[in-house]
Specification:
The complex is a heterodimer. By secondary structure, chain A is mainly α. Chain A contains 13 helices and 8 strands. Chain A is 71% helix and 8% strand. In chain A, the strands form 4 sheets. In chain A, strands 1-2 form a two-stranded antiparallel sheet. By secondary structure, chain B is mainly alpha-helical. The longest helix of chain B is centred in the N-terminal third of the chain and has 34 residues. The chains are: A mainly alpha, B mainly alpha. Chains A and B meet through helix 2, helix 3, strand 2 and helix 13 of A and helix 3, helix 4, helix 5, strand 2 and helix 13 of B.
Chain lengths: 434, 340
């Protein structure tokens, strides 16, 4: 254990926790905005009750997304001072833009929405939740542009012993960042769809407020299906981009050791990094890997010195599991979609959907493992090694204390969050006003 | 050259606005356990900061982001040198945010008590530590080109602690006035009482700070070189008296504006003295991180200037609208009906 490893673990834990809270806010905010708009248009009070019920769950989650986000911004300077000094000229900009353009908007108007029910007109109130929803997703855009630059640095020159920006639009329009944004945001939408389906399933199974939750179920089913389909389509494009820009990550994702043209894919595979081979390779589908990567020749891991390779088993397994879950989501949401007019007639489906709530969360975490672990040993791919990025002024006991502190504190927060979400989900909507 | 000065002023402005806004959230939350004696009064104080605290905190995030984008070298070293105090501030801010949001959703009295404590501690700690951190930055940190030699305890020196307490009392007065503006009459009286009481401590520590500054820092050098700038601390003193005068005349709104302007002019008093340093080195000025040796490239500064010139005015406009919308006296009836 040293400062480097602990700092990495600490960043992993704080980022992972942040991403427990964030994805639900990406999609749920849009659904609430939709519900409130429908109330405005149809005058149906059920839509208003929906907006309030899901809104309360949204607020519980949003608070934690915000407070855990501050940590990430501060940590770049605290634990990764050499990184910040080296790339701040480029990397700082999207972060500052995120705060100025998006974060102000979402935080300010969430306050307006929570406290404005009786203070501002229904139209203005509905507009405020739309602003929250748009700003939340816009916030993800700038953060993922920043992360996209770490994955595929563009628009810079090395000058004054650091990376300096020479082309702002290249940084903003980096295909890697934009694909990653689409993939991440859609996965958050899918997660939100499954959240709505799962909570609705809970109440439908108990025959509680059946009409109300059938309506919610319908909205959740459509949203989950569309998002689940799109997340796979975009994911495929994203993987192609990875194959193109990050050959070591792509080879690790597929555990491909030897450079091959017309590479096949094995449905069952188990890597053995020590001996630079795979222990299991079964159920071969010829040419599939080359087809998916969108290019003939794919570089194998052996082309790269072992010190240039990411941890292979973790990257590989995370990727496979994420993809498997992605396809499972299509099947589940298709099932929900087909049954969405009469979901109460299929208790088995409802039970499965209820217990599926955690699955998109797991898929999201796996995705981030692929993205971040798969980029190692680089912090900025091909430009700066993680080992050279850590703060020099920070001492071991400080990081031990902060690591333990974050783990315990965030653990407690997660417990509180899940407890409150479960309580208020189970409680159901407020009764109709007489 | 001019871009760096622009960003230095902006850097100061972001901190000033942050303290002027989140400062009253801190103050209200510190007074909270002492003046709110029943559930209704507690709800009233939380409601007074509820709609705005989150938007206020974003000024801190923007100050951090702007430091990163405009002065990356300063961002890197300031945050890693001040690792432990920043960590404590972070934990406190997380606790504060969660407590303010979750207390209204608590299901038992025990949970409410835990969140009550969180609101208090989570505001008390940053109120003091931000002051300690800025006091130490004014003094200069102990670093050279090989690294940093301070510890958490070396930050808790006389000047740092006096600055910390000045921040604390200033925020308590600021928060007391804010609460008085927002809550029903009986509770407002109690808040005013506290603001009046802490005003004397605020004034005493302001004087102490101004005296100690001459001995512990080089902040006055810039003022002696260009005496015209003395106008800024003069405005601060003027505003300080304004708080007292308006409070005694029961003009709470004007007292609040005086208090906010006091905070802003205090921050700029420090900033002007600091120029052109962002973090002076107390070992040798040649190691100091200045706006010139730690800034981003002119290209990046230009881009960021354009972004800020467009969006910060927009932010100010809609936040001003929010304040206007929520600038009303909370009634007991409304507290009973509040759903969240």
């Amino acid at each position: 254990m040293d400062v480097l490893l602990l700092s990495r673990l600490q960043f992993a834990i704080t980022a992972a926790f942040h991403f427990v809270f964030v994805p639900l806010t990406l999609g749920l905010s849009l659904l609430i905005a939709y519900m409130q708009t429908m109330h405005l248009r149809t005058g149906d009070d059920n839509y208003l009750r929906m907006a309030k019920f899901w809104g309360r769950l949204f607020i519980i989650n949003f608070a934690l997304g915000v407070v855990t986000g501050i940590t990430l911004e501060f940590q770049f300077g605290m634990n990764w001072a050499e990184y910040s000094r080296y790339v701040g000229d480029i990397f700082g900009s999207p972060l500052a833009i995120e705060a100025t353009v998006a974060f102000f908007l979402e935080s300010t108007f969430l306050g307006v929405w929570i406290f404005g029910w009786k203070r501002i007109s229904p139209k203005l109130h509905t507009l405020s939740i739309w602003l929250v929803a748009i700003a939340t997703n816009l916030s993800a855009l700038w953060i993922l542009i920043a992360n996209g630059w770490m994955q595929n640095p563009v628009g810079y020159v090395i000058n004054n012993a650091r990376a300096e920006m020479v082309d702002f639009w290249a940084v903003v329009l980096n295909p890697y960042g934009l694909l990653k944004f689409a993939h991440t945001v859609l996965s958050g939408w899918a997660l939100s769809g499954f959240f709505v389906l799962g909570v609705s399933a809970y109440h439908l199974l108990r025959k509680n407020e059946t009409d109300f939750f059938k309506k919610c179920f319908k909205i959740g089913a459509v949203f989950a299906l569309v998002s689940s389909l799109l997340v796979v389509v975009v994911g495929h494009q994203h993987a192609k981009e990875v194959a193109h820009t990050q050959p070591t990550k792509f080879a690790a994702m597929e555990s491909l050791w030897d450079t091959s043209t017309d590479a096949p894919m094995y449905l069952l595979l188990m890597p053995d990094p020590e001996n630079e081979k795979n222990i299991v390779e079964a159920i071969k589908i010829p040419s599939l890997l080359s087809l998916l990567a969108g290019k003939e020749e794919i570089k194998g891991l052996k082309e790269f010195h072992p010190s240039e390779r990411p941890p292979i088993t973790l990257t590989f397994i995370s990727f496979r599991l994420m993809v498997a879950l992605g396809f499972l989501f299509i099947i589940l949401s298709l099932w929900a979609f087909i049954k969405m007019k009469t979901p109460e007639t299929s208790p088995l489906m409802l039970k499965i959907l209820l217990w599926s709530i955690p699955l998109p969360y797991i898929a999201g975490q796996l995705g981030w493992i692929v993205a971040e672990v798969g980029r190692q040993p680089w912090i900025v791919y091909g430009l700066l090694k993680t080992a050279d990025a850590v703060s020099k002024a920070v001492e071991f006991p400080q990081v031990v204390a902060s690591f333990i502190g974050f783990t315990l504190f965030y653990g407690a927060l997660a417990v509180v969050d899940i407890y409150l979400l479960a309580k208020y989900s189970k409680k159901g909507p407020e009764p109709k006003e007489a | 050259m001019e871009l760096q000065i622009t960003w230095f002023i902006l850097w100061g402005l972001l901190w000033a606005v942050y303290f002027a806004l989140d400062g009253f959230d801190f103050g209200a939350s510190i007074l909270y356990p002492f003046i709110a004696k029943n559930e209704m009064e507690k709800k009233a104080i939380i409601h007074s900061i509820g709609p705005v605290w989150n938007g206020n905190e974003v000024w801190l995030i923007t100050a951090g982001g702007a430091t990163f984008a405009a002065f990356p070298t300063t961002y890197a070293y300031m945050f890693s040198y001040l690792y432990t105090p920043l960590l404590i501030i972070l934990f406190a801010l997380i606790l504060r945010g969660v407590a303010v949001e979750f207390r209204p959703k608590a299901l038992t009295d025990r949970q409410r008590k835990i969140w009550d404590l969180g609101i208090f501690i989570g505001s008390l700690i940053p109120a003091i530590l931000f002051g300690v951190a800025f006091g130490n930055i004014f003094m200069g940190l102990k670093f050279d080109d090989a690294g940093y030699y301070g510890t958490l305890f070396s930050l808790l020196n006389l000047y740092g602690v006096v600055t910390g307490l000045l921040f604390l009392f200033t925020f308590i007065v600021h928060g007391g006035i804010w609460v008085a503006l927002k809550v029903p009459e009986a509770l407002a009286e109690k808040a005013i009482q506290q603001a009046n009481r802490f005003f004397y401590l605020q004034g005493a520590f302001a004087v102490l700070f101004l005296i100690l500054t001459a001995f512990y820092t080089n902040l006055y050098d810039n003022y002696l070189k260009y005496p015209i700038w003395f106008i800024v601390p003069a405005v601060a003193v003027f505003c300080l008296f304004g708080i007292r005068i308006f409070l005694s005349k029961n003009k709470i709104g004007k007292a609040f504006i005086s208090s906010a302007l006091f905070i802003i002019s205090c921050v700029f008093t420090g900033i002007i003295g600091l120029y052109p340093n962002l973090i002076p080195s107390s070992i040798d000025p040649k190691y100091s991180l200045t706006i010139f040796n730690s800034s981003s490239s002119p290209y990046t500064l230009t881009i960021m200037t354009i972004v800020v010139a467009i969006f910060v005015p927009i932010v100010i406009l809609y936040q001003a609208w929010t304040y206007k919308t929520f600038m009303y006296k909370i009634t007991e009836k409304e507290l009973k009906e509040q759903e969240y």
